[in-house]
Amino acid sequence: MPEEDKKLAYLKREEVKTMQKDVAGLREGEAKQEREKISQIKTAEETQKEQLREREAQKAVQERKLAEEAAIKREEEMKRMREERKQQGTILEKEGMAKQEERTEGFKEIMKETQAREEEARKSFLERVAAKAESLPVNTQDEIMPPPPIAAPQPQKEIPKSFFKKTSFFQKLGVRIVLIILVLTVIAGLTSFWYWYSKVRTKPAPAPAENIKTELIVPAALITSENSQTIEFSNAAELNIALAELLKTAGTPGQSTRLVLENTTENKIWGIKEFFEALPIKAPDGLIAKLNHDFTLLVSSQEEGQRIALVAKIKEEGIAPILDSWEKTMESDLAGLFDLLGKTAPALSPSFKNGSYLNVPFRFQTFSLQDLGIVYTIDNEYFILTTSWQGLQKILDKLKGEPVSLLPFSPNQGAEFVLKSLSLKEKIGQVLLVGLGDKTTALALDKLLENVQPGSVLLLEGNIKDETQLKELTQGLQKASLSYTGLPLLIATDQEGGAIARVTFAQEKTAQNDIADADQAFRIGLKRGEELLALGINLNLGPMLDSAESGDFLFSRSFQKGLAAAAELAKSLIFGQKESGIFTALKHFPGYDGIIFDPEKKLAILPKTPDTSYFLRAAAAAPELIMTANAVYADLDKNLPFTFSPAAIDFLKNKLGENYLIVSDDLCQESLLDQFSLEEIVKLPIKAGVDILTCSDPVKARAAAAILYTAVTNKEISEERINSSVLKIIQLKESLVE
């Protein structure tokens, strides 16, 4: 700041101080003079008031002194501060001086206003005093009040700016070291975090995306089924588990369930390619490409257990050679499928065989006697693969639009329902197995069926000429039976093999004594049954299990292997016949053992019943019927042949059980007709508990029907007894529908 400006500012401040002192002294002197002028005219009261005003005036003077002292102190403080801020620069000093001058000017204005008020108060006071002296009324409201204290202006605090001292070299070095340590610490922390984040920590699984399922379109079924079920799974392992659990459950025999395979992960319905890969099934090259993606998967319920079948449409030709080549490895390639079905042993035959149903040829390979194996065919535009013969049969029935049989009732109706719908004549006919006679004309045959309405017929050599004639005969018999009774026939013959083979043109006629082992026995039974079934014959009266030694009349027809071996061969042969789909009658219980003559010509009387344990072992194959022997066993009944004796029939049931239909050997034998009347021959077996009476002579069969009808009508034989046998026969025939 220039020296002249500083002096000018100083003079201004000194001038203010001098003015304050002069004003104060002037007011004091004037006040003193005024007090002396009016002291003579004051009353006591006025004197008291005056003293009060003097004290207040003195107080005001004192306050002004304090204010002046404060102003002086403040001035000194400001002077000190200005000295300290000399180094702050011209701009800050000018701003500070300007602010100080503003405050000084403000103080001057306040002083001027105060002086003006005091001057007015003094004049008013003098006027009142003069008026008092002249005895004029005094305006008390204009009393002279002591001047208000002059408020010293409050100084604004200014925060002095601090100045840092210049840092030393060591201080700078220390700061830098600290900063470096901090930076290194941060870097180390970031490095550790990166290593933990990328290497050590367990990465959280991504939150599953919201599964917005689109509505899936289930392909139309290629064939109908009784039930349908959707299997939901997320991967192949879950599908295998679900299928395994499903196959463990027992279904209703004869019914099938369609399975729809829904993969929830992919949100789609699996086709044949995914199904083969999941099990897994090793399909030959080119097979899947020739089939449509959509297919129908079925689980069929059978008495033997659950079975699997699949049907797919063929979209390209050339599938037959692929399947033919696949047969070499099909068993191993389908292991994943058969593991679900409990396959534990290799196929009974290493090669595939031919079969036919509804004029559709098929190929099959059997794994077990419980209708388990590989069965496949190509039917027009369809490829069919099943694990059982019954499964293929049902599928072909549905594809062809034909029933399994011509039965007018379904298995669901129950045998009891059918039984109630039959007349007594029809019931009696069901318990008869009737021969047709060698020279029976078509007209006579029709009359026989119309009059007797038998439930079963017996075909002998005289009834069979060739394949075409036999098929026409069996078809005609079935149509006639359905026309008269509404029930199918059991069409039976004796196809033991060897000398006893009623169908002479059949390929399979191996004699029982030529069968070497159980495997051969099964194959023979299977082949024999298939041939008979194709000809329309559904019941084979064999195998024959009678034990015979060399010289016995039946020795040439027996197995000739000993009791235990014969039982095993018979069991396997029965298994084969059941696999083919025909019924079996195991004969002749308890056995024509030790008889050297023809028991049909002469009644055999044996002192003791033969060992029947081998019949029990063979019966493990569950033949549908047991044929009884027409011989007398004295230890059971001295007077009656086994077929006529209630004690003997009870013996059979105790040994083998009551689940079999009991059918008699031919009742029209000379050995019986010579000893008993026809009425006894007909009535006694029924009373004893025999279910089906065999009568090879059609004439005597008509008479037998009439005898039974009369016996029931006369209450000699109860209708309930007839009903019990007919019910079992209908239950057997129901399986033809299934």
UniProtKB/TrEMBL annotation:
Q: Which UniProt keywords apply?
A: Glycosidase, Hydrolase, Membrane, Transmembrane, Transmembrane helix
Tree of life domain = Bacteria
Q: Which organism is it from?
A: Candidatus Nealsonbacteria bacterium RIFCSPLOWO2_01_FULL_43_32
According to the record, the segments passing through the membrane are 173-197
All copies of domain Glycoside hydrolase family 3 N-terminal, residue ranges: 424-731
Q: Which GO terms describe its biological process?
A: carbohydrate metabolic process; peptidoglycan turnover
- The entry's protein name is beta-N-acetylhexosaminidase
Which transformation does this protein catalyse, written as a reaction?
Answer: Hydrolysis of terminal non-reducing N-acetyl-D-hexosamine residues in N-acetyl-beta-D-hexosaminides
Q: Pfam families from the xrefs? A: Glyco_hydro_3
Lyase as a keyword of this entry, yes or no, is no
Q: Where is this region: Disordered?
A: 20-65
The record's family statement is:
Belongs to the glycosyl hydrolase 3 family.
